[in-house]
């Protein structure tokens, strides 16, 4: 039974290390978002392109938030 749990333990430890690295680099990624990014990279998505998409999405969200906070009708 212990042998079956070893890969799960290793995966959790790896993810914890990735989460710590993400935190140290101030990526602002939440665990769920980081997990999605990892799965996309494992599926063959180019990490540099993925990072660019994440940055662009953040800009869009920030722009939308700024527009809604400056809109007097909301």
From TrEMBL:
* Source organism of the structure: Rhamnusium bicolor
Location in the cell reads: Cytoplasm, Cytoskeleton, Microtubule organizing center
Q: Which family does it belong to?
A: Belongs to the MOZART1 family.
Q: Domain of life, per the record?
A: Eukaryota
A GO biological process held by the record: microtubule nucleation by interphase microtubule organizing center
Tell me the keywords, alphabetical order.
Answer: Cytoplasm, Cytoskeleton
Protein name (database record): Mitotic-spindle organizing protein 1
> InterPro entries, per this entry?
MZT1 (IPR022214)
Cellular compartments per GO CC: centrosome; gamma-tubulin ring complex; interphase microtubule organizing center; spindle
